[in-house]
């Protein structure tokens, strides 16, 4: 049986919520799964509920909760209650008469009993209950369901529903520190996690960088995440929250926190990357492929601390994507470009090897993609990890699949002398590592067959095994250097993009930070390396 308790929660809301035992908080819109959702599941058996700027709330014990927008008519009993317990008692008395009831939270210390909801005004039996008034649908009203049945309605046009659990609150399968606010619009409900700012970083850092990496790299990531969050939230990009949980920085709640990442956040508490004393736009990417991108070559503008520099990275962040001309034609049509059937692709302007313009020629004209338009164009299919690439043609008997760093662990006892930076693996089977069946090692102008049963370790933890040696072929030409690809043109049935790096390439490279940390650099050295003319404090 459900038990209802009354709780007094003295929580004060400012422009940034603050708690007595911690620092400032940040508001994170949980867009990844629940942006404008038709239902938000809450996976806790005890919920504290109230409004923004609320002083008193109910503590509800139940089995399973969810929150839904409600666009129903209700009958309101013309009697107000000062606490939830009295309102629930009255609702249960009406329910015993066969009426479907729920409690409504109208404001601080103000509760009511509702009958319904009803799809139409005519369905509401007001005549049978003279001490009631009919309430039309309201676009801001939300309802907590317990076991699928209406249990409590948030009905205060001037406020928003606030929910928290005893420790962490589950929204779906993810648990969150702090409180959950519920914002309703005509499209649905968006839950917002209001969480201590530093505790927010406890989740962001392991979401953005593996917790097993060097502690100095983790500290660099913590400072970058803190700086980026402050800079971005100051621009007020969202009406009801500071940042989102996916396109801003990866935020997956409390369950992903790790001891190592939390230690990095604690060790750098309050530290920011600053230019002229102010927090910078501390953008970062997984890998810049050995050269960073200047901000002018990504988004325009000219941030003095986001300039192009050469860097050293470890890891197998090389990639290949193949698209048939038919696929590219379909993508162009889907993006609104009326160029007809694709005839060829040409690399236009480049900067430090990064492609700044890509021309796609069709039977009815051409389109020139600029900067990050290039990656977004291909996002409708597999996607281009970065703009640091060259292009080439593929054939049924020859395909370049991946380039491997010279410091990658390659378990090749027969070819133990292979160590130059042009090493690559060639296959006729397909693009996915899991589908490799014909492997050859290319080195110093010679393709050599990998013996059956020999494994090849590729950065990122992938192991590839030779399975069908009798079907392998040779590649006879090396890949052109990435910084000499301007003007390269490919026409034919398919185009192969071969590149390195992952992301826009501006600011700190996470793989680069790892390389520097492993070489003995501390986090401040790492940050000053990637963000020119800055101070870290």
Could you list some keywords that capture this structure?
9 helices; disordered N terminus
Structure in words:
The chain is 17% helix and 32% strand. The chain is an alpha+beta fold.
What percent strand?
A: 25-35%
Cα Rg: 29 Å
Terminal Cα span: 55 Å
Note the overall shape. Answer: globular
- In terms of per-residue confidence, which ranges show pLDDT below 50 for 5 or more consecutive residues? 1-22, 395-481
Report on the biggest sheet: 8 strands, mixed
* Structural class by helix and strand composition: alpha+beta
The helix count comes to 9
Number of DSSP-assigned strands: 38
Mean pLDDT: 78
Describe the strand arrangement of the main beta sheet, using strand numbers. Answer: 1-5-4-13-16-17-2-18
Residues in helix, %: 10-25%
């Amino acid at each position: 049986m459900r038990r209802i308790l009354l709780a007094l929660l003295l929580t004060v809301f400012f422009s940034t919520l603050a708690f007595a035992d911690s620092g400032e908080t940040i508001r994170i819109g949980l867009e990844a799964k629940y942006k404008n959702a038709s239902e938000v599941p809450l996976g806790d058996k005890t919920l504290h509920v109230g409004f923004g700027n609320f002083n008193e709330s109910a503590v509800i014990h139940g089995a399973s909760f969810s929150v839904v927008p409600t666009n129903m008519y209700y009958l309101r009993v013309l009697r107000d209650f000062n606490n939830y317990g009295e309102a629930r008692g009255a609702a249960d008395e009406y329910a015993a008469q066969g009426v479907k009831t729920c409690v409504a939270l109208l404001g601080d210390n103000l509760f009511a009993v509702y009958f319904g909801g009803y799809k139409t005004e005519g369905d509401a039996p007001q005549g049978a209950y003279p001490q009631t008034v009919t309430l039309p649908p309201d676009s801001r009203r939300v309802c907590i369901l317990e076991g699928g049945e209406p249990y409590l309605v948030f009905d205060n046009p001037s406020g928003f529903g606030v929910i928290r659990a005893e420790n962490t609150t589950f929204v779906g399968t993810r648990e969150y520190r702090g409180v959950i606010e519920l914002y309703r619009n005509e499209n649905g409900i968006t839950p917002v996690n209001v969480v201590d700012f530093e505790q927010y970083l406890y989740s962001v850092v392991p979401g953005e960088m593996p917790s097993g990496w060097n502690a100095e790299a983790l500290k660099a990531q913590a400072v970058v995440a803190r700086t980026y969050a402050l800079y971005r939230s100051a621009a007020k990009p969202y009406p009801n929250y500071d940042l989102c949980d996916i396109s801003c920085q990866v935020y997956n709640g409390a369950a992903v926190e790790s001891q190592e990442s939390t230690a990095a956040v604690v060790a750098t508490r309050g530290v920011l990357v600053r230019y002229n004393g102010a927090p910078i736009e501390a953008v970062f990417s997984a890998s810049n492929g050995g050269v960073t991108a200047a901000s002018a070559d990504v988004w325009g503008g000219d941030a003095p601390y986001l300039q192009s520099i050469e860097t050293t990275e470890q890891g197998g962040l090389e990639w290949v994507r193949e698209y048939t001309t038919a696929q590219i034609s379909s993508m162009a049509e889907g993006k609104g470009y009326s160029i007809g059937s694709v005839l060829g692709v040409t690399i236009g302007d480049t900067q430090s090897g990064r492609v700044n313009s890509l021309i796609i020629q069709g039977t009815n004209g051409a389109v020139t993609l600029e900067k990050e338009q290039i990656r977004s164009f291909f996002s409708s299919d597999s996607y281009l990890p970065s703009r640091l690439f060259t292009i080439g043609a593929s054939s049924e008997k020859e395909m370049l699949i991946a380039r491997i760093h010279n410091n990658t662990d390659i378990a090749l006892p027969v070819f133990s002398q292979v160590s130059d930076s042009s090493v690559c693996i060639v296959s006729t089977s397909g693009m996915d590592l899991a589908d490799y069946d014909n492997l050859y090692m290319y080195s110093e102008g010679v393709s050599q067959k990998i013996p059956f049963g020999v494994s090849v370790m590729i950065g990122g933890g992938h192991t590839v095994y030779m399975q069908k040696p009798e079907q392998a072929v040779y590649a006879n030409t090396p890949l052109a250097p990435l910084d000499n690809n301007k003007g390269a043109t490919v026409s034919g049935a398919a185009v192969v993009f071969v590149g390195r790096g992952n992301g826009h390439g501006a600011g700190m490279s996470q793989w680069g930070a790892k390389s520097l940390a492993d070489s003995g650099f501390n986090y401040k050295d790492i940050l000053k390396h990637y963000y020119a003319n800055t101070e870290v404090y």
